[in-house]
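TL;DR need C-alpha cells for one chain.
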Amino acid sequence: MKKETYLAILAFFSIYVFWGSTYLWNKIVVSEVPAFMLAGLRFTTAGLIIFLIAGLSGKSLKISKKQLRNSVLAGFFFLVYGNGVFVWSLKYVDSGFAALLAALQPLSILLLMRIVQKKGLKLKSIIGVALGLIGMYLLVSQREIAMQEGATLGIIMIFTCILSWSIGSLFVAQADLPKNFFITTGYQMVSAGILLWTWSLIIGETWSSPVDWSSRAQISMVCLIIFGGIAAFTSFNYLLKNVSTEKVATSAYINPVVALFLGWYFLDENITTQSIIAACVLLSGVYFINSVRKNDKTQTKKMRFRRGRV
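>> reply
TL;DR here they are.
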C-alpha cells in the first residue's frame, strides 16, 4: 500500500472519529467557559503548537501576502464563524442533535456548487435534497426540541455555520495556500484564534483560567486542541487538496453517529424515536447526494492541477 493511501486512511479516520467526538468535548467545556474564549484558546494554542513542530522539523513558515490573506479568510469561514458560533449554539441544543444538523453540509455544498457552476440537479441529487429537507423537518419539529429555551435561535445559527463551512470548503479547494497543508492549518488556526479572542473581548465575555476549570473540562479542552484541532483539521486540509470536496464531506455520515452515542453515554442526552427516524432519512439523503458527486471526481482533479497540486 502506498504512503498516500495510508495518509488518506488516517486522515479520514481523523475527520470521522475525532470530529465526531468534538461535539461532546465542546459541549462539556462550553458549560463552564464562554464560547468564543473557548474557541480562541483552542485554535490559538493548536496553531502555535503546529508552528513549533514545523519550526523544529525545519519547515519554512514563509508565505506570500496572498496566501496569508487566503489563510485568514479560510480561518474565518471554518473556525471563527463555522466553529465559534457553532460552539456558542451548543449552549441551547444537545450535542448529538447539533451533529445531525451538521450532517446537512453535503446538501449545502451541492447547492452552492450548482449555483456557482450553473448546472441543473440530477435525479439522485433531487432525491437527496428532498430526503435531507424531510429529515431536517423531522429533526427540528420535535416537541421536546421546541420546548427547550433558546433552541430555535441555536438551530438557526447552526444553519448559518453550515453555510459558512461549505463556502470555506469550496474556497480552500481553489485558493492559493501554502503547499504544506500542516503550515496551512497553522496559519488558519492562529489567525482565527486572534479574531475569536478579539470578538470575545468586544462582546464582553468573562475570561477564566484553565486551572480553575473542572478536570472534565480541562481534559476535553486538551482533546479539542490535539485531536479535534491539530489532527483533524490538518487531515481536513490534506484531504481537500488530495481528494474531491464531496468525499471529504462524507464525514457527515459518521460524525452524527459518533456524537449521538457519546452524548447519550456521557451526557445522558435523550435520543428519541423521531430523532432516529430523522437521522436515517437525513443520512439517506446525504448518501444520494454523494453517490452523484462521484461523477464529478475528474473535474475536481483538473481544478486541483490548475492550482499546481495533485
